[in-house]
User: Fold these one by one.
Assistant:
Number 1:
Amino acid sequence: MYKFASVLRRLRIINCASTSPLLRYRTLLHISRMNLMTISQLLEEAYNKHKIVPDVVDKFDTHGLLTIEYSPESLVTLGNTLKVKDTQKSPKIQFTLNSPNQEEELQVEQEDRFLLVLTDPDAPSNSDHKWSEYCHWIAKDLTLNTNNAQEDSLSTVLDLSKATHIVPYEGPAPPEKTGKHRYVFLLYKQDPSVKYEPPKDRPTWGTDTPGLGVAEWIKSVGGKSQLLGVNFFYAQNEVQE
């Protein structure tokens, strides 16, 4: 958690309007040279510890850091807890590609498009999955910076104003006395041959089968979509007793 928070702080330096070009470059260079194995292990440990794998998705190879900021004080950091009231508006999303020259480096072309998802696998509670997973958001046709020789290309702040929101953002609303819910963001590389029809309903992602969600939707309508990155937080209703 500490190491990931450190990366987040560096990404915020990059995004600050007052940051000089030189500092921005040096910060990106530092992130790009971080030990990929250390970052990958950190992410995998968090996914397993909080059961994102296998509750939401199967094990996958991460291709970068997905960072989410509701406000400077409300960052999503692999399982931290945020207040419901602070998550009612769609957040700022950033994706930073793994360092260049890695064997599994993701190649991003100008025509590539990306899909962002937010899902709750604990609806209405962690022990009762009759509404799970609950679809909170699907935004498609996002773009990333293309791969090139410039270090700036590693990191992209997603322009959500240009996305197609096939399921509009709905903030967390965990019911009373249901404990903490996991809210999971996932970023996919789109398959250009499919249209990504929205699920017919938010609960169970329209499958009418408790416990099913984004993974089944991707299998059904997503063709060869590729999962690139995941991040998540917890939130709960203030009434628990």
Number 2:
Amino acid sequence: MATQRVLQWRAFARTWWLYDAANQCPFVSAYRVVPYLQGKHKPIFHPLSDVGDHVVVINTKDIAMQADYWRTFTFFHHTGYPGGFSKASAWRVHEIDPTRVMQLSVYSRIKGNLLRKGLMRRLHLFPDDKIPDEILENVSDQIRQVQPVAKRLDQYSEEEVTEFPKFFDWPEDFVKDGYKRHMTRKKPKRRYTV
């Protein structure tokens, strides 16, 4: 009987989750983060109950957007007064505040009801991996990243580079860096007949 009570308190407790947003799309990451804010991973979830957890998102300055979204995606805002409409592209919003793009993508993912402000209060955003100690000591688990991040070539050791299997060896007389493309022939002029 006592074990059931412990399990029940564990389900009701608010845990703190850590999510690394480096090289992740903020719109896709919002779909991963919001269920933890709402508490959908818990067996006691109900749409009208506030049982969600805290989510700490780090490295929001290193987010990545697909295709041409930095230039073409636009955030809109209206104050409610006449002439209060404003819009800004994603790169501009990210340049002003590195956490704002992630915040707006999570905010737009949450259903617009009375619980939205409370859920957003439990979202903690940091532009880099420097987290205050009082928050870091509460973090108990980590949310898996949406997109796998590949290692750069400079992050591999010298042994790993030499042990990597080669597809072919370059010939001895081949010059890799000396090859330059020259335009040998000019385009012929087109003669249009009427």
Number 3:
Amino acid sequence: MGEALAGRLKYYFGSWAPKYIAYGVASVSGVILAVCSCAILPLFAKIIILLPLIAGIVYISRKWFTKEQVADWMYETWSLAQKLFPVLLAGVFGALFYFST
């Protein structure tokens, strides 16, 4: 399953991908990253910007990928989050104790 999804993603990001698709996917990803990480934008503006982007991601994922591929992607994403959260928590509290003394 994971190989099929990776192959499908490589199609849209590879050098043989149509430019309008590759640039479109990359620009939406960049906007999401910029909006989520920018502390200058107020929360309401972030919500207004993120809702159409999330709707677009849902639409594209349903159009380009099968339900099995989306479920596999979500499972892998959740698995990665479960693995990273304890490390992130330990790092934050470790830095807090280290720098507070």
